[in-house]
Design goal:
The structure is a homodimer.
Chain A lengths: L2 H4 L6 H14 L12 H7 L4 H13 L3 E4 L3 E4 L4 E4 L6 H7 L4 E12 L2 H7 L6 E11 L2 E11 L6 H8 L2 H7 L6 E11 L2 H7 L6 E10 L5 E10 L3 E4 L3
Parallel strand pairs in A: 3-10
Antiparallel strand pairs in A: 1-2, 4-5, 5-6, 6-9, 7-8, 8-9
Helix pairs in contact in A: 2-4, 3-4, 7-8
The first copy, chain A, binds a DNA duplex through helix 4.
DNA sequence: TCAAGTTGTCTATGATAATAGACAACTTGA
DNA sequence: TCAAGTTGTCTATTATCATAGACAACTTGA
């Protein structure tokens, strides 16, 4: 294959190779810690120059998906984040327990009104004013999930600003005097990532996502916030404990 | 946007613009016959040089999706193929009625054995020998669908070779003395195109497909062939008549 | 210790991508 | 008829993509 062959596609060869390797990892053909085939062998399977393979590997290494060791080989770094679904889970604790650095960032906050379903989840009336917060969470520099969070605008007035400053749901709730909370009803489904989330999660289009709808409750069991989260399926593994 | 900005993505700018326009057509933002915005305007919306837009438009024109008219503008050519689901439908007739040139090509043929479901559809026993034919159908040069066809290997021995030569399901059946047949049970669902079909249909990954499972019967109502077809949803429109 | 195999780095070349500016050729509507 | 707006074509420049070859630096196992 030469650049001429793929000229009309508009997708660089190294990108095709990188996507191929990444898919191999996501599909489990290469597990965490596994050694990839040598650069020469990869070059032959994709019928591509070794330097093109190196470009692909460099891109994957930059994203922390593989790690090249001189003289030895290239190894799969990517490991799915073990995400236990306990009653009291904090993203930062889960990521920290995995030996990684948790980060959060607000994408957008806006006013909204409760649909019937949102109202039911939050124990409010349909049409009640809500704050809607769009946020992303990362482990080291890898995006793990994007979530849409809704809260009562009356009880949590200015929540968007507070969250943007604290970058943490827990700290934001502390600001309103809530010292603790726990997970309530949780629903998990799967789907295909849409273009917006794909860009935010740094995922190629068409990749699977885990969709989680959950409501957090205060210690009295009253709803505080309800969330609609989309996790990059290839980067996380939910653990349901019995 | 400059090439530097998107360097790490491995996807050419013109391709992003072309995909954007194509998606606009697929979504119905631009209908068949519509005039696209001027090249300058498109360049501004994508923050790209006009020549890059021209490259994108040239790629779309090559695929027959748009048509540029000097001094006037660029127009949407793409029109969904109206595909009536009648009892007696032949792909070539449908495409011909649309004023386009039908084509067919075999991708692959192989031996297979009947799963329980295939056996039920074809009125055979589980494990019965089958011929499996993978084929693609086009209107002019646009791929419309890929289909996997199964036939009894006993009754239609060598069907793969015959189909490869005649490039027509109808002619292949004629070779076995079947002058006419009609559509039996048909199930329609939708899904996301997989990588293999995406390449065959010349579709970007993540695009929707129409999945049709159908069995054709002879005039006595006995099953002849059963098919699993994947249509590019943005190129075809099924018409169910009452 | 050594050979084989691995990744890292260097130079070099040609093709493609993207930008930029200018002008021609054409269509449309006033 | 004319002005404004459109697509078509040309030259030119810079950066990236992909290939190619050679060798260094390193790891591993015999």
């Amino acid at each position: 294959m030469s650049m001429q062959d793929t000229a009309s596609s508009g997708v660089a060869l190294w990108r095709l190779v990188a996507d191929g390797i990444e898919r191999g990892i996501a599909d489990g053909r290469f597990a965490a810690g596994d050694k990839l085939p040598g650069e020469m062998e990869i070059a032959e399977t994709y019928r591509v120059n070794r330097h093109t393979v190196r470009r692909a590997i460099a891109a994957l290494a930059e994203r922390g998906i593989v790690r090249a060791e001189r003289g030895s080989g290239t190894y799969v770094e990517a490991q799915k984040l073990a995400y236990p679904l306990r009653s009291r889970t904090r993203f930062s604790e889960i990521v920290g327990a995995d030996g990684r650095e948790p980060h959060g960032r607000m994408i957008e906050a806006s006013e909204d009104v409760a649909t019937r379903e949102l109202a039911r989840e939050l124990g409010l009336k349909t049409g009640a004013p809500l704050v809607r917060i769009e946020a992303i969470r990362l482990a080291d520099r890898t995006p793990i999930c994007v979530s849409t969070t809704w809260l009562s605008a009356e009880r949590f007035s200015g929540a968007g600003t507070v969250f943007a400053a604290t970058r943490s749901m827990t700290k934001m709730l502390e600001h309103y005097g809530i010292r603790d909370y726990r997970r309530g009803a949780t629903r998990i489904t799967a789907g295909i990532v849409d273009a917006t989330d794909a860009a935010r999660l740094d995922l190629p289009l068409g990749r699977p996502i885990l969709v989680v709808d959950a409501t957090d409750l205060d210690l009295d069991g009253k709803p505080l916030v309800t969330k609609h989260s989309r996790f990059a399926a290839e980067r996380v593994e939910f653990l349901v404990e019995s």
